[in-house]
Every structure is written in C-alpha cells, then in structure tokens.
Design a protein that fits this description.
heterodimer; A: mainly alpha; 8 helices; about 0% strand; globular; disordered N terminus; B: alpha/beta; FAD/NAD(P)-binding domain; 19 strands; about 20% helix
C-alpha cells in the first residue's frame, strides 16, 4: 500500500499548504466567494465617461481619426459608436509594447501634421487631415519616413472596424441587425437556381434582454 | 452514528455521458450519486448567449482581462474560451498537467455541473462498421469489440431523448438516425451540395446537431439566437443540466454532489470497488462515497487519471492495468487542413438565415471504396457558406464614407471547409502520472505525451487539396488552402487511453466497458474508444454509455454487483 500512502501524504500536504501560502489563500478566497469574475459593466455608453489610459487630448485625436475612417453618413459613425472608448479600454488592458506603439503613432500624427501644415493634426483643415490620412492609408506607401504613420493607420483601422461593427449603432443601424432577436424559424434559400423551394417561414422577432 | 449510505452506483462526472448514465441507472431503479468536480452553473448569470458584443468592455473579441488570461494560458487556445465564456473553462493554474517540451498537448476542460456539454459543438454523427471494424479492413490497430448492428439501437435511444436535427442521406459510412427536421442550407451551401454531388459523387448535408428544431420531451425548440457555446437559457441543445440530469432527478433516486474533486477509487478486501475518494473543492475536506458500482464519466483523460491514481498492491500500475494499456492509445481528431474561397454568388442572394447555430458536413470519402496511396482511414469536412457581414472590411482599402459604403455593398459569399480526421491509436501516445506535481487539491497530475504521425500529416495535406479542388469546382475565387496540423488536444475530441476490447492482455475494459480486473468498475466516456474514427465523438460516447448501463443494470439485477 505504499503508493496509496504516498497519495494520501500528498493530499494532506496540499491541504496544509493552502492555509499558509498567499497564492493558495487567494485561490481559496475566490473559490469561496465570487467563484468567477464577471466582466465589468461596459463603459461605452456612460455620460460621464473619461478615458482611463489616454489623455483628454489623445482621446480627441483618436476620436477624430476613427470618425475619419468610418464617418457618420446616413447612419451614425465611429464617434456615435464610442470607438474611442473601445480603443481606450483596449489600451488600458494592453501591454507596454502595444501601448508604446500606439502612443508613438499618435505623436507621429501631430509631428507629421506640423511638418506638412504647420499645426498639429486636430488644428489642420479637414482637407489637410484627409491628405495626411490618404498618404498613410496608401498600400503603395513604402517610404521609411511614413512607416510609423502607416503602421499606426493600419492599427487604428482594425480597431475602428471592430469597435464600430460590434457597437450598438454599428449592429442595429449600419448592419440592420436587430440585436439578440428571437426567431421562430430559419429562412431557407428559396432561389430555384439553388434547388431551394422551402417557403419562408414567418419571421417573428421579439427583443430579448 | 447513522449507517453509512451505500449507493447502487456512483457516477464520476456530470457531463454528456455522466448525465446520461445517471438517467439510465436511476430510471432502471438504482440509487445513484453523481460527483462533479465543479460548481453548479446559474443560467441567469453564467450563460451569456444573449449578450451583445457592446455589453462587454473588449466586445468579446479578446480572451478576458489580462489577470484572468494569465490563469488560462492553455484554455484560451480554444476559440470559445473568450470574454463571453472564459468562466466555462478551467483555470490552468488550478488543474495543471505536464508534457514533454517537444510534444505539446492542449487539454481543454470545463469543470462545472454539465461539463463540456455546456460548451460542446453539438455535432452528432453515428459511426459505422467502416469505423468499428476498420482494423479488419486495413490491418492497423484493433477492431471495436462490437459492431454497428449492436450499437444502433442505443444510438436510437439517445437520439430520441436528446434530439438530433439532420437530414437522412443514406450514406453507408454515416448511418442516418432518428432525426428532427433539418435546419436549412444557405444558398451557397445548396449550390455546393449540387456541385459535390454532380462532380465528385460526394454528399454535402446540413450538420447533424443536438439542437432541437421542434419541441422534444418538454424542451422548447431553438430560437436561433446563435452563439450556443455560451450556454442555452432555454435548454434547446443537449446539455446534461437541461436534459438528462433533470430526468434522473425526477426519479427521486439521484444525489448530485458538486464541488467533489475525485482523487481515486478505493477497493475492498475482495478487490472490488468500495468507494470513491474525493476532496471537497471548497473546504478541502477528504470525503468518501460508498457504492456497489463505480462509473467513470469524468472525461477521457480524467477517467484515466483516476484509474492511474488508484494504485494498490493488487494494482500497482493503476486500476485494471494488468495489460499495461491504461493511459496508452490516446487519440484526438486531427484538424488544421481545409480551404476557403469566395463563391460566385453576387449580391442578389442575400443570406438571411439569422444565426443558424450549425454548419455543413461532408461525410468521409477516403478509403471507403478505394484505397488512398498515402494514408489510412479518412476525414469529414465541416464548414459552411455565408454572406459576410463586416469581416471583409479589414481587406478593403481606404477610409471614409466611400469605404463605409463599400463594406455595405461588397459583402462576399465565403465558403469554408475544415477537416476533422481520424487519428490512429498508437501505444506511443499516452498519459501517465507525473510523480513530481500535484494539482490545487493535492492530486497527482497527468503527464501527457502525444504527437501525430506521418499518416495524420499526409491526411492534413489531402484535406487541404481536396477542399481547394471542391471550391474551384464551384467556381470559387481567392481559394486559399490550409495544411497546418493543429496541436493534439485542440480538436477537443480526445478519446482512448482506457480502451475496451475482447483481449484482457491488450485492453483495459471488456466489451461492456467493465474493467477486466474489477467487475464493478465501468468507464463510460471517450476513454474507452479503441479507435477514433473521424466523426465528432460525443453521440457515440453516449450510445456506448447507454449500452454499458444496460449491462450494468443487468449485472445488478442478477446480484453480480
């Protein structure tokens, strides 16, 4: 029965360790209380929202660039979708490397704007802002001087696309997707050229919280 | 002191098979204790299928906050372990295991009442004699100790209770079942079905899914909200807490014990199972549950771990391990081979299938009639065709109003095929107890050593080539193949390691999933598989459990337990 005794010894040691080690104590406390951590309520819609990571100036710059990428048209744009708040949340959670890259990009935007137009980005005219974004969004731009700007634009574009199309206005207004709807059934393909002939069932929708 | 309670059976694990075993055994009149290592879930707070991305700080796109992520370095490799649902996966820091440096294995787990039946993919396919008797056909490995005719009634039994939606196709290698109405194919999938039939003689069918398309046994039909893997508040897909466990509880003979982290099986003086020893997950007290029979449904690797940790003079290498096969012949389906492309559909055909929680299935076509020159066995394709909503935006150039309009106008129809292939059962792929390491409850952990062989590598290549070939035949553009064999474990179809067989010298369990060396010990999860086939394994695990339960009840009624 040696192996069995060994097993019991290990079990009892582990139990004892739990009471003394700080790591154990933490694990134990989380087991006994919350069980698991729920994500905080989303910050995106709060009226008194303030950026956690970005400065107020940096937040304004992020807001402007996001809106330039996906502007309000016949549907709301990135500002109404709180893309800037999503970006701030990402940066708040990001590691130093990601944060540094992003801040270097923001600074590059102002520096480049000063070089080209004599003022920082937000003080440039809409035409000038557009010109700068056109330069750094071009797939053909392989100028070393624009490298930081081009990488920053690509990063901002990805963040803006995700932030916009996963936002409430993005989903409901732009994608015309009613949100978490309940459907009575699935609409089958009815196009004869695909061999489909099923009648479309009535689409019952009701908002589900 | 009250006389200690002795259950007729104790079931370890409350997932797909544990729930099913509990239902079968209690309905047959046995008193049953079900031990579950984790807590009970509360659908109101733990299920998040109706949450929208904007309800979450990271929009569901990230795993979770960094401090949580640090506790789930392995679990986060599973795409479902995200901001919505990461709490449905274990903390790797609590339940560690080890691997050789050059043989990584991703062990994805959920410890809570219901286990992985909360997060599973719900795809449900029958095996056929092409699978069960594969060794006789091609000479590799061992046959299963039963054939399809023997298993079919138990597939029927499980399907009629849990509900499988699907389309009967009459394909010999993928037997039809007792189906609820199928979900519809999309336009692109209709087209693909026709092309595969006309040009390749292959079948493309709607996924056979454990999702109700009609009410069944008191459970409502699916309402197509979409993200099943985050839990289902209406219980419209099969999960044990929504289906089999309530049925077991209704008999009045079920005792469910959550937070019971099982360490090992205790034997009596005659060498039969006497009890299960467990640690209370929260108080850490050591406890014991006594029973006339033990049923392990703890999941493939956990059931094997319990047996390996149950050593004694009689069983120095682990329980019922005279053969030395315990821990060996571990398998996991291979994946990472496939292709995607843009279908020539045009904007005319708007995809309005809401959020169908299901894809398509192309049954295995290799080594059925012909013999492939490069590899044994075969694979099935899963995937689907749908119209992109906004995922194509990343690849569109520019910015501004024109860009936004282009995202709206240029929604492509994309089709994807991803293969799941058979993994050959090899002695060299195994798990054993790591003598140096224990988990948070002091229980010795597994050392898992697994790598795919040449056969699997060649199959992955064929998956990619055949998927590309089929897409091109449909007129797809931008066809891109993939042939990167995923890390073992990531298919989360791990099976084997306590295989059943007729020969006690080469198997751990007999043809009734009863331990060769301990007559009142049964294993009723994926650990018993002698070969992996290529179909998603859960339905087969449940059918096998159903059959094994029938045998257990028979033994019980004859006084043999």
């Amino acid at each position: 029965m040696i192996a069995r005794r060994e097993l019991l010894r290990r079990l009892s040691l582990a139990g004892f360790g739990a009471a003394t080690s700080p790591a154990w104590a933490r694990a134990f406390a989380s087991l006994a209380s919350a069980e698991h951590v729920h994500a905080d309520a989303p910050v995106s819609a709060a009226s008194d929202w303030k950026p956690s990571f970005l400065s107020a100036d940096q937040d304004r710059l992020v807001t402007a660039i996001a809106e330039a990428i996906i502007p309000a048209t016949d549907t709301p744009g990135a500002t109404a979708a709180f893309v800037n708040r999503y970006v701030d949340a990402l940066l708040q959670d990001a590691d130093k490397h990601e944060r540094d890259d992003f801040l270097r990009g923001l600074k590059w935007m102002d520096d480049r704007s000063r070089t080209l137009f004599g003022v920082k980005y937000l003080e440039a005219t809409p035409q000038e802002q557009n010109a700068l974004l056109t330069i750094i969004s071009s797939a053909d731009n392989d100028s070393a001087a624009d490298q930081v700007g081009c990488e920053f634009f690509d990063d901002m574009k990805v963040k803006t696309i995700v932030g916009y199309y996963t936002s409430e206005v993005g989903i409901r207004d732009e994608l015309k997707d009613g949100g978490p709807l309940m459907f009575a059934g699935l609409v089958a393909c009815t196009h004869p050229e695909h061999g489909g002939a099923a009648p479309a069932p009535a689409r019952k929708s009701g908002k589900k919280g | 002191m009250a006389e200690r309670e002795v259950f007729d059976a104790v079931v370890v694990g409350s997932g797909a098979t544990g729930g099913w075993a509990a239902k079968e055994l209690t309905e047959a009149g046995l008193s049953v204790a079900v031990l579950e290592a984790g807590r009970k879930l509360d659908p109101a707070t733990d299920y998040s299928e109706h949450k929208m991305p904007y309800d979450l700080p990271m929009r569901g796109r990230r795993h979770a906050a960094r401090e949580i992520e640090a506790e789930q370095q392995i679990q986060k490799l599973c795409y479902q372990c995200d901001e919505y649902a990461n709490h449905l996966f274990v903390k790797d820091t609590e339940c560690p295991y080890t691997t050789p440096k050059d043989r990584p294995f991703a062990w994805i787990r959920g410890r809570h009442v219901g286990g992985k039946s909360i997060t599973w993919g719900r795809q449900s396919y029958r095996l056929s004699d092409y699978d069960l008797k594969a060794a006789s056909r091609d000479g590799f490995g061992v046959d299963w100790p039963l054939d399809y005719a023997e298993l079919a009634p138990y597939y029927d039994r499980v399907e009629r209770f849990i509900g499988i939606s699907g389309q009967a196709e009459g394909v010999a290698q993928l037997p039809d079942g007792a189906f609820l109405p199928p979900m519809p194919l999309s336009c692109g999938e209709q087209m693909a079905r026709q092309v595969l039939k006309d040009k390749f003689g292959r079948t493309l069918t709607i996924g056979r899914a454990a999702i109700l398309t009609a009410p069944l046994n008191g459970r409502p039909a699916c309402h197509y909200c979409g993200p099943c893997s985050r839990g289902c508040s209406t219980g419209s897909y099969y999960s044990s807490p929504a289906s089999s466990l309530p049925a077991a509880a209704a008999t009045g003979r079920l005792t469910l014990i959550p937070n019971a982290v099982v360490s090992h099986v205790e034997l009596d003086d005659t060498g039969r199972c006497r009890s299960i020893a467990y640690i209370d997950r929260i108080t850490r007290a050591q406890r014991e549950v006594f029973a006339k029979s033990v049923v392990l449904c703890a999941s493939t690797l956990e059931s094997t771990r319990i047996m390996l940790n149950s050593t004694s003079d009689r069983h120095p290498r682990g329980l019922s391990n005279g053969s030395g096969a315990l821990g060996h012949y571990l398998m996991d389906h291979i994946m990472g081979g496939g292709a995607r492309g843009r279908l020539p559909m045009g904007k005319k055909f708007v995809d309005d299938r809401a959020r169908r929680p299901n894809g398509i299935y192309v049954p295995r076509f290799r080594n059925i009639e012909d013999k492939h020159p490069d590899f044994l066995r075969g694979f099935g394709f899963q995937g689907g065709a749908s119209m992109e909503k906004w995922g194509h935006a990343f690849a569109l150039p520019g910015f501004g109003a024109a860009f936004k309009q282009q995202v709206r106008d240029d929604r492509p129809w994309n089709m994807n095929f991803s293969g799941f292939g058979e993994c050959l059962g090899r002695y060299e792929n195994f798990c054993e107890i790591d003598k140096e390491k224990v988990d948070s409850w002091g229980i010795p952990v597994l050392h898992i050593s697994m790598a795919h062989s040449d056969n699997e590598k060649k199959m992955i290549k064929d998956m990619s080539e055949t998927a590309q070939e089929m897409l091109r035949a449909m007129g797809a553009e931008d066809v891109k193949g993939r042939a990167e064999l995923a890390m073992p474990g990531l298919a989360i179809h791990e099976v084997g390691s306590a295989r059943m067989g007729n020969d006690p010298k080469t198997s751990v369990l007999n043809r009734w999933q009863q331990a060769h060396e301990v007559k009142n010990l049964f294993v009723m999860d994926g650990a018993v598989f002698p070969s992996s086939a290529c179909q998603n394994p859960t339905l087969t695990m449940m059918a096998l459990a159903s059959r094994a339960c029938a045998h257990l009840v028979d033994e019980y009624k004859h006084g043999n337990l």
